[in-house]
Amino acid sequence: MAKIPKKVLTLAFIRRDDQILLGRKKRGFGEGKWNGFGGKVDLDETISDAAVREVREECGLLVTNLKKLGVIDFEFVGDPVILNVHVFSTVDFTGNVTESEEMSPQWYKVHEVPFEKMWKDDPHWFPYMLDNKKFNAYFLFEGHEKIISHWIKEVESLDE
Ligand SMILES: Nc1[nH]c(=O)nc2c1ncn2[C@H]1C[C@H](O)[C@@H](COP(=O)(O)OP(=O)(O)OP(=O)(O)O)O1
User: Which residue stretches, if any, does this entry annotate as coiled coil (predicted)?
Assistant: First the structure.
């Protein structure tokens, strides 16, 4: 059987008191949507190194103590590539939030996360992430706005 190609991506969230830092994506995949910060893992780096790098590039903060909370596979009808997204969270950071070419960052209260302007899967797994619960999930999309099927489960631990 042919091997399904997976593209490994990071997605990191920074918490401060009752707030979470989100960014509005200004270009590329998911343009216009609010999300955490992240992107592709380079060949010479670990997934968590990539997560730290992407946060710095996209919002200017240097994060430490990233905790991996979730791994989500996204499949799109008609596309053989699976997006394998590693979700991280931290409360530890230094620096100032700065807008980048890719992201326009803004702090949101965790109870005021703008799900209507985000990926459709986010309301399903944000509750786990916001509660610091570890989870695995899968979403099958038709286009970028419709989820055809999905599952999500809380897990004891996640592979690094
Ligand atoms: N369905 C989904 N729900 C979600 O919450 N985040 C998703 C998602 N699908 C992808 N992402 C995240 C993962 C990653 O952080 C980001 C996409 O990665 P990139 O920013 O690297 O993509 P781009 O194609 O814009 O990359 P470049 O053109 O190389 O900048 O979107």
Answer: none
